[in-house]
Amino acid sequence: MSNLCPPPSPAVAKTEIALSGESPLLAATFAYWDNILGPRVRHIWAPKTEQLLLSDGEITFLANHTLNGEILRNAESGAIDVKFFVLSEKGVIIVSLIFDGNWNGDRSTYGLSIILPQTELSFYLPLHRVCVDRLTHIIRKGRIWMHKERQENVQKIVLEGTERMEDQGQSIIPMLTGEVIPVMELLSSMKSHSVPEEIDIADTVLNDDDIGDSCHEGFLLNAISSHLQTCGCSVVVGSSAEKVNKIVRTLCLFLTPAERKCSRLCEAESSFKYESGLFVQGLLKDSTGSFVLPFRQVMYAPYPTTHIDVDVNTVKQMPPCHEHIYNQRRYMRSELTAFWRATSEEDMAQDTIICTDESFTPDLNIFQDVLHRDTLVKAFLDQVFHLKPGLSLRSTFLAQFLLVLHRKALTLIKYIEDDTQKGKKPFKSLRNLKIDLDLTAEGDLNIIMALAEKIKPGLHSFIFGRPFYTSVQERDVLMTF
Amino acid sequence: MISAPDVVAFTKEEEYEEEPYNEPALPEEYSVPLFPFSSQGANPWSKLSGAKFSRDFILISEFSEQVGPQPLLTIPNDTKVFGTFDLNYFSLRIMSVDYQASFVGHPPGSAYPKLNFVEDSKVVLGDSKEGAFAYVHHLTLYDLEARGFVRPFCMAYISADQHKIMQQFQELSAEFSKASECLKTGNRKAFAGELEKKLKDLDYTRTVLHTETEIQKKANDKGFYSSQAIEKANELASVEKSIIEHQDLLKQIRSYPHRKLKGSALCSGETEHTQDQTSQAATTSHPDESADTDLYTCRPAYTPKLIKAKSTKCFDKKLKTLEELCDTEYFTQTLAQLSHIEHMFRGDLCYLLTSQIDRALLKQQHITNFLFEDFVEVDSRVAEKQESVPPKPGPGRPPSRSLEECLIPQVLISVGSYKSSVESVPIKMEQELGDEEYKEADVAEMSSFDPQENLDYLDMDMKGSISSGESIEVLGTEKSTAVLPESDSQASLTVPLSPQVVRSKAVSHRTISEDSIEVLSTCPSEALIPEDFKASYPSAINEEESYADDSEGAIHFQASVCAPELGEAEEGGLETPPSQIDSSCCIGKESDSLRVPLSTPAHTPSDQDGVVSIPPQRYRQKDQGFHVDFVVENANPLRDSSSEGFPADELDPSHLLASRDVSKTSLDNYSDSASNMSSLASTSSDRTPSSAHPTGPSSERHKKRAGQNALKFIRQYPFAHPAIYSLLSGRTLVVLGEDEAIVRKLVTALSIFVPNHSRYAKPVKHWVSSPLHITDFQRWKLIGLQRVAAPAGAGTLHALSRYSRYTSVLDLDNKALRCPLYRGALVPRLADHRTQIKRGSTYYLHVQSMLTQLCSKAFLYTFCHHLHLPAHDKETEEVVAGRQASFLKLTLGLVNEDIKVVQYLAELLKLRYAQDAPGTGHPMLRFDYVPSFLYKI
Predict the structure, then answer these.
(1) Peptide bond into A426 cis (omega under 30)
(2) DSSP A177-197
(3) Residues 336-355, chain A: which have Cβ within 8 Å of B?
(4) pTM recorded for the entire structure
(5) How much is the ipTM here?
(6) Residues from chain A contacting residue B861 (CB–CB below 8 Å)
(7) For B83-93, what is each residue's pLDDT tens digit?
(8) CB burial class (10 A; 0-12, 13-18, 19+) of residue A373?
(9) Chain A residues touching residue B184 (CB < 8 angstroms)
(10) Are both B788 and B903 inside the same structural domain?
(11) Which of B314, B347, B380 is the last residue of a domain?
């Protein structure tokens, strides 16, 4: 193929990244639309391997390819569009995030892309949202950076009367590098430690002869209930990898196969980093018996998280979806505003720029006890251990339980859809909903709402968001007096 | 817990205070909206209405070498669907992606033009401003007239929901690959045909030129060639070269399948899938390998024509249409496949996702999913087929389904098959089915449930004038209920009141507040009992006696299919002493009369041999009561007319069954608190969930209407709970009425509560006009019965009166129900008349989820190993029974009659589990002789 590709531009810089495990990613590229030359590649990131996976020429060709047609780009202001290519002829898949930005005084179109072999399609698709969310956020920050550089350049040009465009133009790359490398590492770790699509119930707590054999009954109930209340998003920490993984697998039983492929087991010897956006992940505590969760990344996860400590049998959960999304967005806005207002490069350094505006002080105590009890999980756990283990009976019973949950979630969505005429009217009758759909226990409602949120994103915010937003505003106003 | 760098910033309070307010605010384009639905009217559904098109559609575009990107056609071909959406612009956008850079045409250094069989490319892109996102499937077709012999096309699935496209990427890719393969196969065939014609033309031209040259040679006697001759010679050489080139092209195109199949081993799973389709298509349409060649050689006779030396320039010629490029047959087949795709992915993503999850979970529940799921096995087979297996019509499936499932291979065979495929598109089916519904059910129909047969009846709107809250009265309870609550037989019998009786009496006096039922009279007044509901058999005395001893309070008459393995298990448990079987008992008498039609030596009650029954523990107590077991030859589905020959004294139709004095208000005339919703329900059709794999009879439309009518029923009839309880507990409910449409409609509505006996048959008979036979009660658990005025209908009514004590009867004309009392907690949750659920489809979903929960309980009860077997040798049956009762009450949280529901479902599960050949038999015929109440509005 390489002989058919145009030679790479001599200006293309390349960063080679050393990864500990196998990298499913072939390369990542940053390209832009040059008004004279068309699509051009600015930077390439590639894993450091002995075997050349893709030549620079091929990478450049593919990266250029992602911007083809973008001269016709018709996007909303500030939009970051995602393009996804499966090029069988080249045997690759490319994920491109296309955005407009100001760089060196020119408004242009840019593309940040990752390239994987086509054989990894089924591996990649469940992780698509995680990758896109993370790259989207770094682009948001990078775009501000680019804009600020431009301003600085203009000032410098005016003051010094010199052209320093090329020098300044490179500086977005370190910022992108700061996220591209973790994405590569994430994919690499998922390649080796992702939870399999099919889980053998024998590897889980549900295979115990009786409830409480492996872990305390109340702990198991809390863990599963909270896990379901937080949309199947949980972090399991502990000192024993075996114990952690058993709970990880147990929780994954309550997820769909695609969600399982977006979950990660604990590494036996050293711990992985926390990764925002995975459904369930097992993490090993360090020698001091602690594990540090990065606040920002936990906040940026698409769903609230349940924190489960298998050493001390504690279960903590984040606030429900609408509150989580609200906090997340406030935090994001604060961070971006801080970037915008930063006056020096030190201020903008990625590790130190924790930002907030004057009106927002995030609640750091985001993990709380599980307050709402449910009857669904409780009944399930009370009943499932009556069935003989080792046969397929418990798997069947579990499938029935999940089917009930999914059907209830769909009924709930339909109920709200009918009641609000597809969102045209506000939803007012939560009490009726609870009675009509037999969800009077608060925990039951939370579980079904969480499940519904996954198949109908935005449902929480639509139902509870506005009252919550209003109440928060009121609270803020009251606190100022 | 929280890492230090994240927290540090929050401590910089002084910085916040010093935050200069004169700093320019962050431009909105660089920020994120604080609230997900901050803009006016935004909500989780609004993204679907933001686009200029009304719903998802498919667009086929071409990159024309003459005019550039252009839209060719849309599916559905309806301008209302894409509205004002600019197809030209969007075609330009999707075709401007340079999706491949592989060389096509005449490569440098190569002697002949080389065809490059390019793999399809798939791209997901969007236009966020227009709110349009697309899955674009690029493919290349061959055209001898085109530049480089190639014509780039693309098929795009356009939707307003970006997540839908990404989440359904693999499914879309697989389905579009099928369509693409179909187009390309047709194109290769057409291209080969074109080449053959061209070769014939060239051959003919060469012959002509050769002849002309020879003539000129002969004519030339000057010893040198004229310029004309040289020109001819050059022309001939050019034709010769062209022939070789075209022969090479033909060879290349013919070698396609083998080359691609060889290469497929190296490609990814997706490519393999695509190529599987290729091979499927090839093998289906051409069973043997040699047929591959036939694909390109079977041509009608062609008259060659002379080719002029100078061909027309590309801008002068008219490019072939897509249909011309492919074989018409393949083209129409592709359109059918694309229509299928459009239908398959139509609707809101949440319904697509849930249906996929549903199917996956149901696959794991083959033991229980027959109970309330419609044709699950067929569905799962469809799903499996779509995943991997080459589709082949299964012998046991309905033709329409198999046609639909096997769309491509079927159509590849012939144009005729294509027509079938088109007809099998579910929308059409729904429209057409209505025509058939009035057809009288034949024997085949009796063995398979077809919920759609009543679509037209369902169409009729149920209107009414009586509000759901209106009070109803129990006009009369049977005397035996008042005096002897567990028996509804003779008034003359004097039996001392037991404590149990007193309790039941209290029950009979209660006001069912929720249903606003008022018991006007509980006196043992024979006059209040409709004649047909009276026990007119002397045996009733014995029944009462035995009943009083029966701790279960029920008398079981069992007529079961012979299932040796079960019968064997039952032998120990069903030892009904012959002395207890009173041959003069109503059923005992009945059994005599049944001997003829049953065509088997009907077992006398004392004959226990071969009696089929359910698991042993279930009926161990029955020897304390009256119990008749006899075998019914269930293989005789035909009604036996001899059963109508009743003695004259039995022909005593009741006023409830026959009289039409009571105002004959049809269901349609009732007011419905939700009737205003029905119009709303119809508006949701654009986004109505459409199953990704249309499930034939149980279509979404059917479900919606069944749910709607069921909802109306529970709102209009305060006695809906006992009626539903009857259905759930396996007691046959006969819906009696004069108007077939109304009866059918209600039967269809109530059928959602009827547990199936097998995967293949729903025990529902929508309309019967002939007298009921005992086998009907074995076969059907919900029957619509025609009320015919006497004397023609006397037989029908009399047959019903004969069994009326053992069945529940809902008289639609008189708005009355006669069935056992229900005091459980399950049905009120399932069918609450105060529910605010507005639409039938929502109510159907609610019922489905509640019934799934119920199945789960039944499953647990059935397969809980320690429940049904004695823990040790010395453990008595009573202890086991006590343990079961305790489990049902405490672990499963069931109360009163709910226990019977779970027990009945558990029996069905056991029977099903024990059967070797699923769907071949019916469960035992069981009559629970429990007192019935008469409810009347």
Answers:
(1) no
(2) HHHHHHHHHHHHHHHHHBPPS
(3) 336-337, 340-341, 351-355
(4) 0.75
(5) 0.91
(6) none
(7) 888 999 899 88
(8) middle
(9) none
(10) no
(11) B347
